């Protein structure tokens, strides 16, 4: 139903980007479905085809063009109608300040036009690069050339090694206490919180809790190895804790989530699991 392809960034952009993603589906024009989106990283998504909207403030808001998806503290609800195609890339939190000249907290749980945070001429070039490419590889290569322009435009071209280390810790051991993580990184809890808010857009505690939830969601979808699924389950103290976390992030019980048809969210969880073995 949905084709998801992912590509590693070039060596030059590897410190700044996590992955490139190209997602498409040749669906009937009249087919409409709702789904959830939630990820560890902020994303730029270029909507090339399809009728998209997201649930914002109690109403559906139409989406089009190049968009910045900020950090998620809860799942976002989206609606898609007809065949669709998306070209996307995810930021490394440690590189946020090199790609966006505004605090990450400004975009948490929001979807905004990319022109609100990038130079409009660069966004226009990104749209052209993604829409005019003859194949996946060319699309990624052309988008990277535009991303390099944005890096030059912001002018920092550096990453925060402490944030990079915390991202690795969160992915590998989301049960760690914030105090212990800060100690490993040689920071006070307050210093770690400031760094995380500036780069992730969320507090360290929120980052760790989100990782735990996504690990468990992947296990429920059968995307983890058996030992990983068992470890994910152990990260929740009991059934009431599990229920509380799923209601917090999705507004539903674990059982309702298991029954939910969520092709976009499942595809994103699959890509996340694949990414755990990558740089």
Portion in beta strands = 15-25%
Global morphology: globular
* Biggest β-sheet description: 7 strands, antiparallel
CATH C-level class of the domain at 3-154: Mainly Beta
Enumerate how many helices there are, as a single number: 11
Low-confidence stretches: none
**Straight-line distance between termini:** 29 Å
Radius of gyration, in angstroms, nearest whole number: 18 Å
Helix content: 40-55%
CATH structural architecture of the domain at 3-154: Sandwich
Alpha-beta classification? alpha+beta
Protein architecture, described:
The protein has 279 residues and is α+β, with helices and mostly antiparallel strands. The protein has a domain at 3-154: Sandwich (Jelly Rolls), CATH 2.60.120. The protein has eleven helices and seven strands. Strands 1, 2, 3, 4, 5, 6 and 7 form a seven-stranded antiparallel beta sheet that branches. Helix 7 (204-220) crosses helix 8 (226-234) and helix 7 (204-220) packs across helix 11 (263-275). The protein starts with a strand and ends with a helix. The relative contact order is 0.15.
Quickly list its features.
279 residues; alpha+beta; Jelly Rolls; 7 strands
């Amino acid at each position: 139903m949905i084709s998801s392809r992912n590509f590693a960034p070039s060596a030059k952009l590897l410190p700044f980007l996590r992955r490139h993603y190209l997602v498409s589906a040749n669906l009937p024009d009249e087919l409409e479905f709702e789904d959830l989106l939630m990820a560890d990283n902020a994303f730029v998504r270029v909507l090339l085809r399809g009728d998209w909207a997201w649930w914002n403030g109690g109403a559906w808001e139409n989406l089009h063009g190049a968009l910045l998806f900020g950090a998620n503290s809860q799942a976002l609800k989206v609606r898609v109608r007809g065949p669709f195609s998306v070209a996307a890339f995810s930021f490394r939190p440690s590189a946020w300040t090199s790609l966006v000249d505004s605090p990450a907290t400004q975009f948490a749980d929001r979807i905004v036009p990319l022109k609100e945070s990038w130079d409009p001429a660069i966004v226009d070039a990104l749209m052209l690069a993604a829409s005019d490419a003859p194949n996946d590889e060319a699309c990624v290569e052309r988008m990277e050339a535009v991303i390099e322009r944005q890096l030059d435009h912001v002018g920092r071209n550096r990453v925060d090694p402490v944030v990079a280390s915390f991202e690795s810790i969160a992915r590998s051991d989301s049960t760690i206490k914030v105090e212990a993580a800060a100690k490993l990184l040689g920071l006070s809890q307050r210093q770690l919180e400031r760094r995380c808010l500036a780069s992730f857009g969320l507090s360290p505690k929120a980052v760790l809790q989100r990782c735990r939830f996504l690990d468990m969601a992947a296990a429920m979808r059968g995307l983890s190895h058996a030992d990983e699924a068992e470890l994910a389950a152990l990260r929740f103290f009991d059934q009431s804790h599990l229920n509380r976390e799923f209601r917090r992030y999705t507004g539903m019980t674990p059982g309702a989530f298991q029954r939910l048809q969520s092709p976009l969210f499942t595809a994103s969880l699959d890509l996340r699991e694949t990414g755990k073995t990558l740089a």
